[in-house]
Structure formats: structure tokens, C-alpha cells
Design brief:
513 residues; alpha/beta; 9-stranded mixed β-sheet; binds xanthosine-5'-monophosphate
Length: 513
């Protein structure tokens, strides 16, 4: 069966992967390719459609990225977005100029959509998201205008006979209200896709590609039990089985039972074919952390010790051919677009490449967004509680204990956090981005039974956030908070007070460190 796919040709726009993701949401396989991909390579890939992305340049400047005009003669449908639309106009004999007024943000757009496949079912007046300083001032021959705004005379154009379409606005961003409809029209009505791609196909293709790439090579993966490294490890295990060794460092700063849960899934009695090494390094970490109070110092110690432990294990294994990283697309953006071999900057993975003797890094999740990684995880049969895990920082509970970390304090925060998570789940509280218990370094007087106590206060935190850059404290129902409080003071020895953190980010951070 011929594989259906759409190529997103990247001209440097910010939303290139988002476009690809939207197309995949239409159940059509889609990959982002650099605009340096040759015409022959495009022909060989035989895509059902091509989408030109936006980009920061002006098409009329020589140094801006252009593409061989012959691409418009291939008979493959093309949708140009923003810079991509200007490029199409310019190359086909239209004109592009600096707009008298730049347009940024949500803009009222009117569609002359009569008979346009791209705008089929789209309202005549719609809100679209613009971000441009240039615009198409004159359409190329054979094109008709299909939308305009107050500032932009040609907000969309098309030449239906040649199946060439263009929008100045960005249909891929969610602020373009009917953008998904337009993209779906493009892939189904213009390109004639059937839409039979699903995450299962991604999983299948990736496993096949990994098998081809790795051959008989040895592979090493640092498994944290988080969703990204778990999904990456399972993909590798399905591809090359026992050629993969996963090293799981239990630094004694994980959530309650977490180490055993990871072992139950990935260890010798678990569900996957791989070599699993659990390093129980709890005591090592606790002794390094003894007497250290400053949060940044704790982070550095935990990070450095993690690398030392991993290095020792890696030495035992010897040289490997590949090192697996669970890098996902947002990590790639954070670390700078388009750079090769970008490594997660967070402490517990960042230093690994230097301490392992390997030839190449493999990053099977590099083009996926978090929710796509979760879908792939479910597809691979990874248990839901692992797939839907909250974010958890590499330094773990080490930074959720204010002041010095001790084994006793770890036990307190683990138990309190476990109760909190259990009660939130029982009450079915929705919409939380992250929630956990932290141990303050404050002790105060209380009375329990007939005895005076002088014990610690636990802080409960819960935030609502979509990007983890900003967050609001969540209004957890009082009954839930009071139940959690009762249980914590009754069940967790060493705690006599529970506080709720009402602070947003900024000014606080999400973590309580
Ligand atoms: P903050 O506390 O800076 O955290 O608002 C934002 C998000 O990042 C997570 N976080 C980390 N994740 N390694 C990680 O993998 C770390 O060192 C780390 N520190 C914070 C935090 O849990 C929140 O989701």
C-alpha cells in the first residue's frame, strides 16, 4: 500500500512542527523537512501534499531562502503559509512588498470563499492569527484572492487548477478559530488523503527504522521512569530487545514506591525484553547531601552524583554504539531550533553524553509533542499510571525538602505526598497541571492527644498551567484539603501542621525549593 504523507518544508518559521502535528491530528502522516531538501528527494518521497512554513525573512531579498520553481510544476498540491505564501506569490510572478502596517495577533478576516476547497465549511468572517510585516501586493497570474483583512488585501489566494493555495495567516495556531478546518480541507479535499495514519503507524515505522539504524549495535538508555525516557526505552526494546541496556538510578529522592514501580514494569519480571540495571544509590546521595541546605547546591550535588553513578555503570557495560535520549520536540525548541544533537538540559541527562563511550545519540521522540508521546506510550502498552505521570524534577524530592535532606525527611515528604495524590485522585479533582507535597523546614508547636509536639509543617502545592512557564494556584475544594490535612497529621509521624501554597508563578516557581 502506498504510504500517504505530507511534507512540511521548513523556511525557518516558529510553528513548523506545530503544522506537522496538526496534519497528524488529521490522521495523515507528516514530517518537517528543511527547505534544502532537493526536488529529487521530494519526488522520491512522493508526498500527497506539501506545506511551506512561515519564516522571518523577506522573499525579495536574495539571501532569503527560496526554492526551485519547478516544485510548482510537480502537480503536487502546495499550501503556503505566511512567508510560504509570499514565496509562492513571488516565484510565480506576483509581487510582495512591505505592508504599510504590520499585523500581529488575532485579526478579522473575510473570506471570498465561494467554491474554494480550502475554505469549504469555513465562516465568511473568521478570526485568524497574523504575524507579518510583508504581504502579497499583487497576485500571480491565474490566482484569485480568497480572503482579505483591513490591512492585508490578499490574506489568502489560490489557483485551484494547479492545486496551489496560500494563506498569509497561520491556520495551525489555535487562535485561528477555523484553522483546523482549513488544514483538514487541504489534506482531504485538496490532496485527496484518506487519513488512515495513526499513532500505531508511528510506533511501527519508528521501530522498523530503529532496527535498521542500530543493526547489531549495543544501546544504552538512562531510564528515569518518566514518560519520555520510558517511551523511548520501550521503542528501543521492541526494536532491538536485549541489545538495549537500561540503567535506572534510584537516588532515594523518588516518590513513594516509585523505584519499585519502575522495576516492576522494566525489570526482569516486567513486560519488556531488555537488560535492566537498577542502581540503589540512596545512601550515596544522602551522605553527599548531608549538611547541605542551599537549593542550588543540592541540585548540583544530585546532578553530579547522578552522573558519577551512571558513569560507573556505563564503564561496567563498556563501549556502546548508541546512547538513547528521550528528547521531545519542546526540548528541541528550548535548546535552540534546528541544532543537531540537542541534549536535554536538565541535570540528570545533560551530562551523560560526556561520561559514556558511545558513537551516536538516538532520539526517537524528537518530533513529538508531549501528548503525542503519551499516545505512543499507550500504543506500546505502557501502563497508564506511567504514561500520565506528572512532571517530576530530576533532583526529585531533594528540592522538595527545604533545608538539609535526610532519609527521615524523605520518608515524611514521600508519605505526605502519597496521601495527597491518593485523595486528589479519589475526589477526581480535574484541571491540575502539577500537584505535590513539600516539606518546609519549619517546626512549630502543636498538641496531639495530651502531648505537646514540635514537628514539621508540610506544604501542599497544586497549580494550573498549560506551559509550566506561568501557573496559577489551583482552588482545591476545601473538603479535599481538610481530608488530606487530617490524614497527613494522623498518618505521617513528624508532621503536625499542613499549609496550602496560594502563590502563582511568577512570583513563586512551581517547585517548592
Ligand atoms: P519551576 O519550579 O521552575 O518548574 O516553575 C517548572 C517545571 O519544570 C519542572 N522542573 C524540572 N524538571 N529537571 C526536570 O526535569 C529539573 O531539574 C527540574 N526543575 C523543575 C517542574 O517540576 C515544573 O514542572
Amino acid at each position: 500500500m502506498e504510504k500517504e504523507m505530507v511534507i512540511v518544508l521548513d523556511f525557518g518559521g516558529q510553528y513548523n512542527q506545530l503544522i506537522a502535528r496538526r496534519v497528524r491530528e488529521c490522521n495523515v502522516y507528516c514530517e518537517v523537512k528543511p527547505y534544502t531538501m532537493s526536488l529529487d528527494e521530494i519526488k522520491a518521497a512522493n508526498p500527497k501534499g506539501i506545506i511551506f512554513t512561515g519564516g522571518p525573512n523577506s522573499v525579495y531579498l536574495e539571501e532569503s531562502p527560496h526554492y526551485d520553481k519547478a516544485i510548482f510544476e510537480l502537480g503536487i498540491p502546495i499550501l503556503g503559509i505566511c512567508y510560504g505564501s509570499q514565496l509562492m506569490a513571488y516565484e510565480l510572478g506576483g509581487e510582495v512588498a512591505t505592508a504599510p502596517v504590520s499585523e500581529y495577533g488575532q485579526t478579522d478576516v473575510t473570506a471570498d470563499n465561494e467554491g474554494s476547497l480550502l475554505f469549504e465549511g469555513v465562516s465568511q468572517k473568521s478570526i485568524c492569527w497574523m504575524s507579518h510585516t510583508d504581504y502579497i501586493s499583487k497576485l500571480p497570474e491565474g490566482f484569485r484572492r480568497t480572503a482579505w483583512s483591513d490591512v492585508c488585501p490578499n490574506a489568502a489566494m489560490e489557483c485551484a487548477e494547479r492545486r496551489l493555495y496560500a494563506t498569509q495567516f497561520h491556520p495551525e495556531v489555535m487562535h485561528t478559530r477555523e484553522g483546523m478546518k482549513m488544514l483538514s480541507n487541504f489534506v482531504y479535499k485538496v490532496c485527496g488523503c484518506k487519513g488512515d495514519w495513526q499513532m500505531a503507524s508511528f510506533v511501527e515505522t519508528t521501530i522498523r527504522q530503529l532496527r535498521e539504524k542500530i543493526g547489531g549495535g549495543k544501546v544504552l538508555c538512562a531510564l528515569s521512569g518518566g514518560v519520555d525516557s520510558s517511551v523511548a526505552a520501550v521503542l528501543l526494546s521492541k526494536a532491538v530487545g536485549k541489545q538495549l541496556t537500561c540503567v535506572f538510578v534510584d537516588h532515594g529522592l523518588l516518590r513513594k514506591n516509585e523505584g519499585d514501580e519502575v522495576e516492576a514494569v522494566f525489570g526482569p519480571n516486567g513486560s519488556y525484553d531488555l537488560n535492566f540495571i537498577r542502581v540503589n544509590a540512596q545512601e550515596r546521595f544522602y551522605s553527599k547531601l548531608a549538611g547541605v541546605e542551599e537549593p542550588e547546591a543540592k541540585r548540583k550535588i544530585i546532578g553530579a552524583e547522578f552522573i558519577r553513578v551512571f558513569e560507573e555503570e556505563a564503564k561496567k557495560i563498556g563501549a556502546v554504539d548508541f546512547l538513547v535520549q528521550g528528547t521531545i520536540y519542546p526540548d528541541v525548541i528550548e535548546s535552540g531550533l534546528g541544532k543537531s544533537a540537542v541534549i536535554k538540559s536538565h541535570h540528570n541527562v545533560g551530562g551523560l553524553p560526556d561520561c559514556v563511550d558511545f558513537k551516536e545519540i538516538v532520539e526517537p521522540l524528537r518530533m513529538l509533542f508531549k501528548d503525542e508521546v503519551r499516545k505512543a506510550g499507550l500504543e506500546l502498552g505502557i501502563p497508564e499510571y506511567l504514561v500520565y505521570r506528572q512532571p517530576f524534577p530530576g533532583p526529585g524530592l531533594g528540592i522538595r525538602i527545604i533545608g538539609e535532606v535526610t532519609a527521615e525527611k524523605v520518608r515524611i515528604v514521600q508519605d505526605a505526598d502519597y496521601i495527597y495524590r491518593e485523595e486528589i485522585a479519589k475526589a477526581g479533582v480535574q484541571g491540575l497541571g502539577q500537584y505535590f507535597a513539600a516539606l518546609t523546614n519549619m517546626r512549630s508547636v502543636g498538641v496531639m492527644g495530651d502531648f505537646r509536639t514540635y514537628d514539621y509543617a508540610i506544604a501542599l502545592r497544586a497549580v494550573m498551567t498549560s506551559d509550566f512557564m506561568t501557573a496559577e494556584a489551583a482552588p482545591i475544594p476545601w473538603e479535599v484539603l481538610s481530608k488530606v490535612t487530617n490524614r497527613i497529621v494522623n498518618e505521617v509521624k513528624g508532621v503536625n501542621r499542613v499549609l496550602y501554597d496560594c502563590t502563582g508563578k511568577p512570583p513563586a516557581t512551581i517547585e517548592f525549593e
